[in-house]
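Researcher: Sequence recovery benchmark, item below. Answer with residues only.
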């Protein structure tokens, strides 16, 4: 095996602050806050970072529950540790943000113990609302992650096997409004143009194209408004539509296809259409093989079983970060039994002994990648080259 990536002084630094992170994990569990309402959670994390020596900007970039802390240790490369802490309505931390958010905080605390061993800057980003519009999306668009040599976090998982990264699909959400002309459905339907019929035909045309989709493409829509009374041809109908693909290039191709289907339906039914985004796009993931290889080595050194990264089946705002700098989001198992994300069973695993130990394991992995990035120029160069190569493929696929 190559030289070990998990250094004893990293493990020691993590263990020194482990109880603080475990207490944070349990406190977030006990006081869940939903997207954009994480005032108590973000304040608690900010207080911990400030006490450890981080200079923290809070709020950050216009988000009242976002923050950016920095451990400035002189001239050198910069890395970013991402922290999530929003919960789900009704079931609390069923996605494990209390656990993997605490992993990120613990890694950040560990880096304060290593200041005599590196030069550079460690940024810690508080990224709220991952479960909804995703604060990382506008943060990335405003340049928050530009110039970083690495951005990373871990996502909680279960089932006893971890994964070196999380692959995700790009996501575009549209609110599509069809307008026609109302008329009595019996006395004079020939005087009207049914916006509902146009919306239905639009969805039919989308379905007609499905046999030509590549396996990664998903287009799903619902009619959210289609009239009130059956004896009136609706002058307005609204479709909420989501498009997912595995690359930005394909997303734009599908956008054109969807718009053509809408134009075709309007041409046939004498209606008009307008498109508005429901929220800003979630990007797919630019995976970096060099980072994934280093993560798999760390899994082995940490005694963690792992399996290949599966085909993407969802979306995450971490994908937007990955189009601005080398990014990785390993998935770390916190339970030997598999429980689906967004469930009460998964939520409760985060505060059990194995979940608490996983907080330390995850922090060691994050801190090890951060430390290597800050201190190994060849590794940084290899990561950057791998990243640029993969990003180019994504943009041109």
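Model:
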């Amino acid at each position: 095996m190559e030289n070990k990536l998990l250094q004893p002084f990293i493990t020691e630094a993590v263990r020194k602050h482990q109880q603080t992170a475990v207490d944070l994990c349990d406190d977030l569990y006990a006081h869940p806050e939903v997207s954009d309402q994480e005032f108590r959670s973000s304040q608690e994390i900010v207080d911990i970072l400030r006490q450890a020596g981080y200079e923290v900007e809070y709020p950050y970039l216009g988000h009242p529950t976002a923050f950016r802390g920095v451990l400035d240790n002189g001239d050198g490369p910069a890395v970013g540790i991402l922290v999530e802490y929003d919960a789900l309505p009704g079931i609390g931390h069923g996605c494990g943000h209390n656990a993997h958010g605490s992993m990120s905080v613990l890694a950040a605390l560990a880096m304060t113990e290593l200041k005599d061993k590196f030069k550079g800057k460690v940024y810690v980003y508080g990224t709220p609302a991952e479960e909804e519009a995703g604060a990382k999306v506008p943060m990335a668009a405003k340049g928050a992650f530009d110039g970083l040599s690495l951005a990373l976090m871990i996502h909680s998982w279960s089932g006893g096997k971890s994964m070196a990264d999380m692959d995700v699909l790009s996501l575009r959400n549209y609110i599509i409004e069809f307008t026609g002309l109302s008329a009595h459905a019996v006395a004079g339907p020939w005087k009207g143009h049914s916006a509902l019929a146009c919306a239905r035909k639009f969805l039919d045309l989308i379905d007609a194209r499905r046999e030509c989709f590549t396996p990664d493409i998903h287009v799903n829509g619902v009619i959210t408004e289609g009239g009130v009374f059956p004896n009136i041809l609706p002058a307005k109908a609204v479709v909420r539509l989501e498009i997912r693909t595995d690359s930005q290039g394909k997303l734009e191709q599908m956008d054109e296809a969807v718009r053509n289907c809408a134009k075709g339906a309007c041409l046939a039914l004498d209606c008009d259409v307008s498109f508005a985004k429901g929220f800003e796009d979630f990007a797919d993931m630019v995976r970096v093989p060099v980072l994934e290889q280093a993560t798999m080595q760390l899994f082995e050194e940490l005694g963690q079983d792992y399996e290949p990264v599966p085909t993407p089946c969802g979306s995450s705002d971490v994908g937007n970060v990955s189009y601005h700098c080398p990014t990785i989001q390993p998935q770390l198992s916190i339970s030997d039994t598999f429980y689906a994300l967004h469930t009460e069973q998964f939520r409760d695993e985060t505060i059990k002994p194995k979940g608490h130990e996983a907080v330390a394991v995850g922090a060691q992995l994050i801190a090890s990648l951060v430390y290597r990035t800050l201190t190994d120029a060849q590794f940084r160069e290899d990561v950057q080259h791998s990243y640029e190569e993969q990003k180019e493929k994504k943009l041109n696929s």
